[in-house]
Amino acid sequence: MVVLPSSDLVAEKMVVKMADHAIGDENTVLATLGLGSCIGIALYDKFSKVGGLVHIMLPENPGGKKTVKYADTGIPFLIEEMEAAGAKKRRLSAKIVGGAGMFKSESGDSVMKIGERNIEAVKEVLKNEGIKVIGSDVGKDYGRSMYFYPDDGRVEVKSFSRDLITI
């Protein structure tokens, strides 16, 4: 359990693993740990206080079964789940974290550019869904963990040997 700093409420912490998702409300903290080239997408409806978090690994689904693993199928799936929990798509906003260039060649270039491709795909899917990205911490060459608080919509990003940031 986590005590929310803004109150005496105890929040349930739900950890979203790679290629997974979760939905919570103001009594929940949604977290995903160890984002490298993967991206955590936090969607939030500030009126219903419904939040969702998906941890995508790759840009496009080649037709497999695990839809939340990919940006093009994971984000729409999360939106549907959030609407079933009381959120309205037209009120959703997004914050995205991750997409690092973690795998370098000897020349220092990012191999396969998975992080970069993930960032582009996530932004494109969100644009097509009509959801505005209001905060992000993406790219660069280091991993991150993110903590999403649906009580107020903030996302805290922690990285090894870097200061905590809030988006």
Task: Summarize, please.
With 167 residues, the protein is an alpha+beta fold.
List the helices and strands and how they pair.
Layout: E1 2-3, E2 10-15, E3 21-24, E4 28-35, E5 39-45, E6 50-56, H1 71-84, E7 92-98, H2 114-129, E8 132-138, E9 144-149, E10 154-159, E11 162-166
Parallel strand pairs: 2-4, 7-8
Antiparallel strand pairs: 1-2, 3-6, 4-9, 5-6, 5-7, 9-10, 10-11
Helix pairs in contact: 1-2
Describe this structure in words.
β5 (39-45) and β6 (50-56) form a beta hairpin. The protein is built from two helices and eleven strands. The chain has a six-stranded mixed sheet with strand order 1-2-4-9-10-11, with no helix packed on it. A five-stranded mixed sheet has the order 3-6-5-7-8, covered by helices on one side. The protein has helices at residues 71-84, 114-129, and strands spanning 2-3, 10-15, 21-24, 28-35, 39-45, 50-56, 92-98, 132-138, 144-149, 154-159, 162-166. 18% of the residues lie in helices and 39% in strands. The longest helix has 16 residues, at 114-129. It starts with a strand and ends with a strand. The protein is α+β, with helices and mostly antiparallel strands and 167 residues long. It has a single domain (15-158), classed as 60s Ribosomal Protein L30, Chain: A. The model is unreliable at 1-7 (pLDDT under 50). The protein is globular.
